[in-house]
Amino acid sequence: TGFGQSEITILNTATGELIRTLPKLPWTIVRVGVKLSPFGTMLWSPDGTRLLRQSVLREVVDERDRFHELLQVVNVTSGEEIWERKLSADGLPHSVWSWSPDGALLAILQATDDIASRHDVELWDSGTGTPLAVIDGTEINVVNSSISFSPDGNRLAGICRATEICVWDLPERPVVAASGPLHLSAPRQTYLSDKPVFGLAFS
């Protein structure tokens, strides 16, 4: 239970026994601007051993939003931090995440303009928080999109537009490159719906 930036309480659902309490994420970013409001999220790894926590500070300056993020992955058994990253972005923060089935990758949406009208999909190494690749041509235009790996980890689906679902065939697993994140071309299939789509999942 809890919120991304708040204290997290982990319980045994069968017994109600307290397993561990994770402390509130610290604010290490200077708060400047006119109006501030914090929020965040959390996401379990597929094997239940790690927890991704996100704490976000929103500042409004000259009627424009800017977000400062603190991202942390912790080992739930020991409570120790595995990695932490600090990011800043205009428009919207990293708000949609998905673990690959084997737990090795994180897929995220990254806004590519300051009004968050277009997003790219990035693949991160979940063990280090290192960006490995950007999938070219994703162009997700829905703020509250959803992204999901297929059970075999070879495809990624997302809500591209209000009534459009896109499925990408992923190339071979990206690795850390000295030049920075790779740009990958992924074949895309498109499925149209006669009603707005608000969520998706593979069987």
Please give a quick description of this structure.
It is built from no helices and 15 strands. It is mostly beta strands and 203 residues long.
Describe this protein's structure.
By secondary structure, the chain is mainly beta. 0% of the residues lie in helices and 52% in strands. The chain contains no helices and 15 strands. It has strands at 8-11, 18-22, 35-44, 50-61, 64-75, 81-90, 97-99, 105-111, 119-125, 130-140, 147-149, 155-161, 164-169, 182-185, 188-192. A 5-stranded mixed β-sheet has the order 7-8-9-10-14, with no helix packed on it. The radius of gyration is 17 Å and the shape is globular. Residues 28-38 have low confidence and may be disordered.
Order of SSEs: EEEEEEEEEEEEEEE
Helix-residue proportion: under 10%
Strand content: over 45%
Can you give the mean pLDDT?
A: 78
Shape: globular
- Helical region count? 0
Poorly predicted ranges: 28-38
| Count of strand segments | 15
Query: How are the strands ordered across the major sheet?
Result: 7-8-9-10-14
Keywords:
203 residues; mainly beta; five-stranded mixed beta sheet; four-stranded antiparallel beta sheet; 15 strands; globular
Give the helix/strand layout:
Elements: E1 8-11, E2 18-22, E3 35-44, E4 50-61, E5 64-75, E6 81-90, E7 97-99, E8 105-111, E9 119-125, E10 130-140, E11 147-149, E12 155-161, E13 164-169, E14 182-185, E15 188-192
Parallel strand pairs: 10-14
Antiparallel strand pairs: 1-2, 3-4, 4-5, 5-6, 7-8, 8-9, 9-10, 11-12, 12-13, 13-15
